[in-house]
Write a structure and sequence with these properties.
Chain lengths: 242, 242
């Protein structure tokens, strides 16, 4: 038995999608799937003969639209998984998770970790030694905190919770804008530009407040679309997986 | 002892750069480093406390410029490694390799495999179960064969040589244009759109000839620059690694 693992990139919003599966049962999960990449993702799931069990969102994205609902057309038994605090997406979600909730794929377990701060309901997920941090912890950076219930104070606590994981834990974020694909908790504790193990909360809040970022280009379309788990995209997308 | 492995992406030419290192000796190699990403790459090498021993090129690239020579300013003992057939780059290369040449980093060995066809001197490199295929074998596709001594007939033979490796061998190409990061020999034998285990040479040649691709945008600047191992970029680039 081994873990099948695929990291996939969407170039426009620099989003990473992840496919995780157990080699024997072929049970699989997808994390942060993007609407415009659904053909690629369903083709890959089909080629690898995977049975999609969980469609996991780390949070309600503001920069792209999820393919969660469209994916359910091809995998009707798959469950959409969302952090408990995302009440606006409750009606389209199948499983609302909070701290410690376990999602089994074969003999592996995906464990939910609450990491609010970028948004109110932002979650991380741990499987084996792989940590999917959504928009909380990036490679050498962190998520912004200026909309959707974001709070630098809260994000500080969330990231310090992640810093308690073993240094060798591999960090896979929802985005990267510099071409990095993976880091470790040990690396981020030492080299993150926004938050390190020794930075106090005040310093981190100052760093986050110093970010002068434009709103995400697609925020007006993305947030309502993602609050419906991407349902509004379902009609216009095609998939090779009939 | 373990293998440190980083996959890095350059967005403009969709190029993957790879850093490989042995955890105890910290000896490292970089494969297909890109000039405009040198600040990122040298910063990462420094953070990880790695000692760059080999600067490896899979081939003379036509779509971007290598940072090989500029990197030597920061790692003067590092050796530029190039396939034997790249005679135009012989004067700037330190080690010209052919089939079976072994490059040791700590207790690991990087083995050179001749895989001409995309260009005359295109090489692949194998370390542990990781295969770096340059522009010979892509994920679900292959390199083009219409310049720099390219030959579909030759590439067919090269890829079939790679197909003899164990199915579980991980495939890391020099480019991906669809957001894939890794494949396996087993997957490519079954799912590659251009060449599969059962495709005959004629079918592959037809597939390659059907590619209607514009010349790479930067071919006129890139080829001569890469024939000098990126020397002409050395004056204009900065690195944080003083």
């Amino acid at each position: 038995m081994s873990l099948i693992f695929k990291q996939l990139f969407e170039n426009e919003s620099c989003t990473y999608t992840y496919i995780l599966a157990e080699s024997e049962t072929r049970e699989a999960a997808i994390i942060d799937a993007v609407d415009i990449m659904m053909e690629r993702d369903t083709a890959l799931l089909k080629e690898l003969n995977l049975d999609l069990k969980f469609i996991i969102e780390t949070h309600i994205h503001a920069d792209h639209i999820t393919s969660a609902c469209p994916l359910k057309k091809y995998y009707p038994k798959a469950k959409i998984v969302m952090g408990m605090e995302n009440v606006d997406a409750e009606s389209c979600s199948d499983i609302m998770v909070n701290e410690g909730h376990v999602l089994p794929i074969g003999n592996y377990e995906i464990k939910a970790i609450e990491t609010p701060g970028h948004t109110l309901g932002c979650m991380s997920y741990l499987i084996d030694n792989k940590l999917f941090t959504g928009d909380s912890l990036f490679i050498r950076s962190t998520g912004r905190c200026d909309f959707q219930g974001g709070s630098a104070k809260t994000l500080y606590k969330s990231i310090h919770k992640l810093f308690k994981l073993p240094d060798s834990t591999e960090v896979y974020p929802a985005h990267d804008y510099n071409g990095f694909s993976v880091s470790t908790i040990g690396e981020e504790k030492k080299f993150n530009s926004m938050i390190q193990e020794t930075f106090d909360q005040k310093t981190f809040i100052k760093n986050v407040n110093s970010l002068k970022l434009d709103p995400p280009k697609k925020i007006k379309a993305s947030i309502p679309a993602n609050q419906s788990c991407g349902l509004i995209s379902a009609q216009i997308l095609k998939s090779p997986y009939k």
